[in-house]
Amino acid sequence: MSNALIIGAGLGGLSTSIHLRLAGFDVTVLEQNSQAGGRANRLTMNGFTFDAGPSLLNYPWVFEELFALAGRNLYDYLELIEVEPGIRFYWPDGESLQLSSRFDLLRSELERFDPGVGPRLARWLDRAGRNYRLSFERLVISNTDSPLKWLGALKLNELAGLGLEKPLYRQLSTTFHSRRICQAMGSYAMYLGGSPFDLPGLFEILPFGEINYGLWLPRGGIYALVEAMVDLASDLGVEFRTNCRVEQVTQDGVRAAGVLLADGERLAAEATVSNCDLPYTDVNLLPEGLAKSTGVRRAGRLAMTPGVMTFYWGLNREIQGLGHHSIFLPDNYRQSFNDLMTGSGISSNPPFYTSVASASDPQLAPAGKSTLFVLVPTPVLSRLDRTDFLAESERLKQLVFSRLRGHGCNISAGDIEVERVLTPRDWRNSFSLYDGSAFGAAHSLFMLGPWRPANRNPHLPGMFYVGASTTPGTGMPLVTLGGRMTAERVVEYVR
Ligand SMILES: Cc1cc2nc3c(=O)[nH]c(=O)nc-3n(C[C@H](O)[C@H](O)[C@H](O)COP(=O)(O)OP(=O)(O)OC[C@H]3O[C@@H](n4cnc5c(N)ncnc54)[C@H](O)[C@@H]3O)c2cc1C
How does pLDDT run across 217-243, given as a tens digit for each residue? Predict the structure, then answer.
């Protein structure tokens, strides 16, 4: 039986392990931490349960398909709670906009900002829906290395309709005549490592996807999805070794031969897959000669998505006036993206995201109490040289309290029963994230499909990648789809 080693038990690694096992491989997953999940981890404190990273789950179809491929039903492993309405966006002047997956609610909310938007909204849902389907069916999951072949999967009129040539903000403003709607829907660019004024208009499929497929919370938190995938992989016979740090990928002649573990043990494999962040792998795990000759150079050229400061607050009461998902946008919208992508230091007035997961699943907090997660995007670590994270966390905490107060949600330090803060440095150290980037390599036009770092190493046959910085991109659904693509590469190589 062919065998494969997977370095890292993030969602991409878990998905690859399932696909390779289904293809008949003997699979071992090696995870440096004590539990699987990577960025999608779980923190527990005094009866409060928090998801460390991802909190917005969309496209459940990706996970349904994964389980169905294995002959299982996702819902035998997991319960999904619908989070409806979805995200509410807030501005400093007190205004807010609520997105919803119910067409009537969405239309009447958008009408408040853009009278007469109804027919334009219907046309937008049609257009973005077509582009979503074209993207996922023909582009996203294609392992094609040639740009011509990749784009050739679409007819010319389909290609022309994708919005690749226009920035996202402009693409949105062809439909929506309200600055607030464009700002809200354009803000998704932040997690892709760009600005709505630079990233391609194609990314309007993100707000579309959220509206069309809804937002979901696994009962027990996002980590219940990780547990479901670990259970499925284990049921299929994947072996897991936790507290098992890989020191280096080994080489036999020109090929990857397996790994050297931190405790000196060597494991041999026909295929080695790194789910550890791609640029981190290139610099730190590839055989030394290769890391020096190609890895460091490639990592240095890679534009990365921002870092994050994350706050986990267990509150001693229920929160009034704040829904499950909220995004607080600043007045200086355009400037805040510039600060994030090119500034040094954390912006004086950054946008931020809050999640009250206990509002959807009360089990996550003790009775009568609640969980509040806050995510503040920051520049990557190499641009935070002089940042005093302790002082910044206190400043950001006060900023969050003040913005929440401005919208009638009064929270103060005295309400916080338990607290944890993760800085970009903590994120880097816990999960080996290159430059502390939270979401991996950025997604500008020439960082998509065949232009994105491929899921196999061109200089080291037998060495593969999966996860946020390789194809197809970041986010739980995409790295899970990426697992299927990487497994296809491995099967093609070994057979
Ligand atoms: C704060 C935050 C919020 C996010 N919010 C969302 C969201 O709401 N929705 C969404 O869809 N996505 C979100 N994301 C993105 C999403 O979490 C990631 O895209 C996805 O989880 C990355 O998965 P991955 O396969 O790249 O693996 P990773 O999560 O990067 O896991 C890699 C694993 O490899 C292990 N590893 C690294 N080095 C070694 C080594 N040498 N030896 C052994 N093991 C090693 C690590 O410990 C880790 O467990 C968020 C990310 C962050 C950080």
Answer: 999 999 999 999 999 999 999 999 999
